[in-house]
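Duplicate of #3305? Posting structure anyway:
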């Protein structure tokens, strides 16, 4: 199975240091919806693994988060594609959960859902924690320059991290190579 796992904020949609707290604040990055739709139509299963500590912090609730994800699904469906499993971590940094990146719990959840191995599966993120989560379960870490990606580029990246400008460039690489 062709499985691609994406971080959400800074990869699919614009991110904000003030968190993305409403559907109105949830704005797709240029080309990201089209990229997901094209990948889906090319036979890729596109899953999402996203930290959402804003829930633990009380900035928004699960209903708002689900509305954001219904919006994502609707936009991709308008382009003839579909989004696979979306897994989120609702916890805060001090909650000691197993799902908050850089822990790989959400990646393991996605692998179990599809009954596939994670080795070599591309996990695309904009933060160092995304790349570390990938490395922890032998996924291929992939950094995009969108969101916090440019800032992350200044840090020490896991060996073998691939770097792309954005999700559209990743789709072009995966579909045409
Ligand atoms: O990039 P993903 O995983 O989809 O989601 C990141 C968001 O949950 C938020 O994560 C926060 O980090 P803390 O959770 O406060 O450490 C901050 O980086 C926010 O700017 C960001 O919007
Ligand atoms: Mg992110
Ligand atoms: Zn968690």
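Output from current build:
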């Amino acid at each position: 199975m062709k499985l691609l796992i994406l971080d959400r904020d800074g990869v699919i949609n614009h991110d904000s240091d003030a968190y993305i707290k409403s559907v109105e604040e949830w704005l797709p990055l240029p080309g990201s919806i089209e990229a997901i739709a094209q990948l889906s139509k090319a036979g890729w299963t596109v899953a999402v693994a996203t930290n959402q500590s804003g829930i633990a912090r009380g900035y928004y609730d699960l209903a708002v988060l689900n509305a954001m994800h219904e919006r994502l699904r609707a936009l991709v469906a308008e382009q003839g594609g579909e989004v696979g499993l979306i897994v989120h971590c609702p916890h805060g940094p001090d909650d000691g959960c197993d799902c908050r990146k850089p822990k790989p719990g959400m990646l393991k959840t996605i692998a179990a859902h599809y009954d596939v191995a994670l080795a070599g599966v591309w996990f695309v993120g904009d933060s160092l924690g995304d790349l570390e989560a990938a490395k922890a379960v032998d996924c291929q870490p992939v950094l995009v320059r969108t969101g916090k990606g440019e800032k992350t580029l200044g840090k020490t990246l896991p060996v073998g991290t691939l770097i792309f400008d954005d999700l559209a460039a990743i789709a072009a690489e995966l579909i045409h190579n």
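Confirmed duplicate; merging threads. Residues 53 and 91 are 5 Å apart (CA to CA). The beta strands are 2-6, 44-51, 86-89, 122-125, 140-144, 162-164.
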